[in-house]
Amino acid sequence: MLAGAGVAMAQLAPQSNGPVDITADQLDVQSQKCQAIYTGDAEALQDTSRLRANTINIYYKTLAPHPGAPKSDPSEPGSSKCGLLDRMEADGQVYYVTPNQIVKGDHAVYNSDDKTIIVTGDVVVAQGKNVSAGTKLVINTDTGIATMASNVTGRGKSGRVRTVVYPNQTQSGAAKGGESSGGGLKAPVAPPARPQTG
User: Can you give the pTM of this predicted structure?
Assistant: First the structure.
């Protein structure tokens, strides 16, 4: 069973080695593909950081067989040997939320090897009242370094990377849900908090 195996190697929260708690309405496991598919308000939570989307796919690394081991028939169930987490992919109303920022996009990929989250589509980042927009955001969860890009370049063209900054406000703290930043950019509405159970 793949569920949860190796996901603790993910680093959604900056410099965290804590476990990743994943919840959803449904889980489908495809052992041959070393894949687990979480659908229906899926959420991956680690410490104070969370990744939320309609669907989260977890891909595990396929282990090479030991030398001398008998070759398995790939059509046989359970023939694949799955190892640690390779990547997580989130689709549909994607939010990456930390105590300091809210990121909204259409698609996100977390790569465990380089500890990066790549958010693409209509990307909006809110930190306090400050808002940035583009089409691709790369966040290194280990260093905290982020790069925003756009597929539009050239002075005066609509759709380039854009930021509205309030210089007299502190940088910390995620934006209030739906608070307008002015200048035509609007902070993303934070996803509703998941109700506590138990």
Answer: 0.78
DSSP-based three-state secondary structure for 15 = coil
Residue 58 · residue 90 · CB < 8 Å = no
Six token digits for residue 195 = 């109700």
Q: Return the bridge partners of 108, or none.
A: 90, 119
Q: Calculate ∠ Cα 190-19-49, nearest 5°.
A: 20
- The residues near 181 (Cβ < 8 Å, ≥ 6 apart) are 126, 129, 130, 131, 164, 166, 175, 187
Beta bridge partners of 53: 42
Contact 54, 93 (CB under 8 A): yes
| Phi, psi dihedral angles at 106 (to 5 degrees) | -100, -30
Distance CA 135, CA 46 (A): 25
Quick one: which of 174, 83, 165, 77 has its CA closest to 127? 174
pLDDT digits (tens, 9 = 90+) for 25-82: 999 999 889 999 999 999 999 888 999 999 999 999 998 776 655 555 444 444 468 9
**Rg, Å, the chain Cα set:** 19
